[in-house]
Protein: L-rhamnose mutarotase
Amino acid sequence: MQRVCFLLKVRADRTEEYRARHAEVWPEMCQALSESGWHNYSLFLREDGLLVGYLETEDFEAAKAAMDATDVNARWQAEMGEFFEALDGARPDEAMRPLTEVFHLA
Structure:
């Protein structure tokens, strides 16, 4: 199982709305994530907008590709894009760059 961690930056003035949106993630989005191989997926948000994402998956590239093929992901990303800084025209899911794991206590 691959452990994946990534960082994104939510606009500081949109953090409360971002939290509210994630308190009510669409059921079909949750189902698509699960079916696409995203397991133990968590998002952590600091007050200044730093977003840390974590998930476990068999194959991150395959899991991203499976989500990319869903209509619900396209709709969710279109709605969420306005919350982020420095995407340079990319969707939030396209801007995720996994961090290199340097230690894991098994």
About this structure: The beta strands are 2-9, 39-45, 50-57. The CA atoms of residues 45 and 51 lie 5 Å apart.
